[in-house]
Design a protein that fits this description.
With 726 residues, the chain is α/β, with parallel strands linked by helices. 29% of the residues lie in helices and 23% in strands. The structure holds adenosine-5'-diphosphate and zinc ion (2 copies). One zinc ion (ZN) binds next to loops.
Length: 726
């Protein structure tokens, strides 16, 4: 008698036991395979986690599974184990964690096999039967005919912008689908373009990594523009020569066609990418190619950490400090941290690269867990920019820009270079207020103000997404004098266009880039090299290489200086350093101007005088003194309910059951934004110097919370190693 212990997508942190169906034997089952099981009156895709001889479930309650989906588990054993480990570490329900490690097609129970890829072939001499009036069909037909060895539907779409006529042409018998011939990659000559000659620091880094066999974690701390990517490329070259594969993770908005093309330009091998802008089918196919060893380089965002590789060779995390590696809701894993676990298990090197490494990674260097590699010079002839603080106390500002900065912008433009203006606030203005009574347009669902947008005109909550039309009159005093307060990117764009009518202004923020390919189109315009102004939010700060930017202006550094979050300083320092790093990346010498009301602030002083590394060492000392990560380990329990006070009561009751040495708690206290999207939120912070103790405690605590009398009246979640405290 055997019982099947399976994980199913349920919020409960446990496994469920089932019986095999009639005539099924133990040998029909493999751990990690998908099954279909009955659950309530639904049919769910489940994953087999264990086969056991005993169960505590009474016999009359046991149900049989419906069927076996996979003869062989879709993932290699190691990735399955990694997903199990992560579920445990992040205290996430196991079924959800296991399923999230799989492509969406597989979560839905579709067969795990490669869709036969087809190429379209035009059949000879049948074009006479097409009327000259069927212009679209004719164009499609002729395009396909030009490709004698056939063309895929995706490639056709890319060339023609549509594939609308294909169906009709197939029906008319003018086209034929034939399976794509399976080409094996030839990796004997992986280089397409020659590698760059490394400077001494790059060389030291490449050698240190390449001489290493097996697991080792490296922190590559290279200033902006120092050529970290070249280091990655040369490490990957060696990996490819050994017949292995590379997995490269980049921040969410860093996966631009530019990034991908650098890898494709260098190597003769198959490069696939995995990110959220692709269709589920495309992602699934890329996943399969990685798993089967047909793609040698896999570039992806956070979730790609679970992409299996047939021959793992190296994992690279670019911009390792970036917050997008940590999932901020639901299953709150950190892909960067899992990369270390994965590399250890697969016995490969892992490289974390950044110009502004996280304090966690620097701490891991200090305790000798990671090997530290630095690049202190910019690659090629470029030199680091000159950084200046500009005191704007009492200055007149136009759209946030002071007089001296305007003069500076003019000078740079007249020298035919580009200027980058950083303003981390999208929309027209951060608020709308009444001049007569001081009323400020609030979000009804959040403790927040509504942002005014002009294109199209509306009020928008950046926290919950609710939108409203702009009132004509103040709802409090009926005055019609409603004013936009402060400056967002839309307003700055408008003012800059008036001030610099002869120059283009390229605005980059979430709104201006929401259309597909919009970002790419703007970047192409910028890289054409004409003088002009780049204006944008943090989307501009990350990883871009703009050759012509000579001046970077940070309009407002102050909001980051007084954050209540313990990581506020670290984030601000990273952002300022990354933005500043966009200046002077090639032959032009760069300048950075930071406008502030607090030029004496120690963070700004230390960044300007000594740079990020010095700041980071000081900040680490402060973290040690204040018993904060990375010296202590924390987890936040977040609870929310529609009823004010209920979330807090839930956490208070939970806290009373808490008594354990070496784990301390603070709270519950209202979240920094207590009301958000119509619910009231409360936090409880748990902390320990000893990670295993915290882990052990959390796993017990989660079960208690599941059985808490208020558990079905509040929504709660647990965040291990939280990135932010909101
Ligand atoms: P990072 O990722 O460290 O910010 P990049 O890898 O984007 O820097 O490199 C910045 C620029 O320097 C790129 O244009 C790159 O092609 C160039 N570069 C990198 N290494 C070298 C080298 N050894 N010699 C010449 N140019 C280099
Ligand atoms: Zn009013
Ligand atoms: Zn809101």
């Amino acid at each position: 008698m055997i019982f099947l212990r399976v994980a199913i997508p349920s919020p409960l942190r446990r496994l469920f036991d089932y019986l095999p169906a009639a005539n099924q034997q133990e040998s029909d089952f493999t751990i990690g395979a998908r099954l279909t099981v009955p659950f309530g009156n639904r049919k769910l895709v489940a994953i087999l986690v264990d086969i056991v001889q005993h169960t505590d479930i009474p016999a009359h309650k046991l149900k049989a599974i419906i069927n076996i989906i996979d003869q062989h588990p879709p993932q290699p054993k190691f990735i399955f184990d990694l997903a199990l480990w992560a579920a445990q570490y992040y205290q996430h329900p196991i079924g959800d964690a296991l399923l999230q490690s799989l492509p969406i097609h597989l979560r839905k129970g579709e067969p795990c096999e490669r869709v036969h890829e087809y190429l379209l072939h035009a059949l000879k001499d049948t074009d006479q039967s097409l009327s000259t009036r069927a212009k679209k069909q004719l164009a499609t037909y002729n395009m396909i005919k030009q490709h004698q060895s056939g063309i895929s539907i995706d490639a056709l779409k890319a060339e023609l912008g549509s594939s609308a006529s294909v169906k009709i042409l197939l029906e008319k018998g003018l086209l034929e689908k034939r399976p794509r011939p399976h080409l094996k990659n030839d990796t004997s000559e992986p280089l397409r373009e020659p590698a760059k000659t490394l400077n001494p620091e790059q060389k030291t880094a490449v050698q240190a990594i390449n001489q290493h066999q097996g697991f080792k974690a490296f922190l590559l701390d290279g200033i902006t523009g120092s050529g970290k990517t070249e280091v990655y490329l040369q490490v990957i070259a060696k990996v490819l020569q050994a017949g292995k594969q590379a997995l490269v993770l980049v921040p969410e908005i860093g996966l631009t066609p530019q990034t991908v093309s650098r890898f494709k330009a260098r190597f003769n091998v198959k490069v696939v990418y995995i990110h959220s802008n692709m269709s589920d089918r495309q992602r699934f196919q890329a996943w399969l190619q990685a798993r089967d060893g047909d793609a040698q380089i896999v570039i992806g965002t956070r979730s790609a950490i679970f992409t299996p590789l047939a021959h793992p060779g190296v994992i690279i995390i670019d911009e390792e400090h970036d917050q997008s590696f940590k999932q901020q809701e639901g299953y709150r894993y950190s892909a960067r941290d899992l990369a270390i676990v994965r590399a250890h298990g697969e016995n490969t090197p892992v490289i974390l690269g950044s110009a502004t490494p996280s304090l966690e990674s620097l701490h891991n260097v200090a305790i000798k867990r990671y090997q530290y590699l630095t690049i202190n010079r910019r690659a090629g002839d470029a030199v680091p920019p000159v950084v200046e603080l500009l005191d704007i106390k009492g200055c007149d500002l136009q759209a946030g820009i002071s007089e001296p900065l305007l003069t500076e912008i003019e000078q740079h433009l007249s020298r035919k270079t580009q200027v980058l203006i950083f303003l981390n606030r999208r929309g027209f203005a951060p608020s709308l207020s009444c001049h007569n009574c001081g009323w400020i347009a609030p979000c009804r669902r959040c403790d927040a103000r509504l942002t005014l947008h002009q294109k199209p005109p509306h009020l928008h909550c950046h926290h919950c997404g609710s939108q409203k039309s702009i009132p004509r009159q103040c709802p409090e005093c009926s005055s019609s004098e409603l004013n936009a307060q402060g400056t967002g990117t839309e307003r700055a764009e408008q003012t800059l266009a008036q001030l610099f009518p002869d120059y283009p202004i390229w605005r980059i923020d979430r709104d201006s880039t929401s259309r597909k390919n919009a970002m790419q189109e703007i970047i192409e315009k910028i890289n054409a090299g004409q003088p002009g102004i780049l204006l944008g939010t943090q989307m501009l700060a990350k990883g871009h290489h703009f050759a012509k930017v000579s001046l970077v202006a940070i309009l407002e550094a102050d909001s980051g200086l007084f954050s209540t979050d313990f990581r506020g300083m670290e984030r601000t320092a990273q952002l300022i350093t990354q933005v500043a790093g966009r200046a002077g990346r090639e032959k032009i010498i760069g300048k950075v101007i930071i406008q502030t009301h607090h030029p004496e602030h120690p963070l700004l002083q230390s960044l300007v005088d000594k740079g990020y590394r010095d700041f980071a060492q000081n900040e680490l000392k402060i973290r040690a003194l204040s018993a904060l990560p990375p010296y202590q380990h924390i987890a936040i329990i977040r609870a929310e309910a529609g009823n004010p006070g209920r979330a807090e009561t839930f956490l208070q009751l939970a806290q009373q059951t808490l008594n354990i040495d070496h784990v301390s708690s603070s709270g519950p206290y209202p979240a920094p934004m207590e009301k958000k999207a119509g619910v009231f939120r409360s936090h409880l912070v748990l902390q320990s110097a000893k990670r295993p103790l915290l882990q052990h405690f959390l796993s017990q605590f989660c079960l208690q919370l599941e059985h808490h009398p208020l558990a079905n009246k509040v929504r709660w979640s647990i965040d291990v190693d939280p990135y932010d405290m909101f």
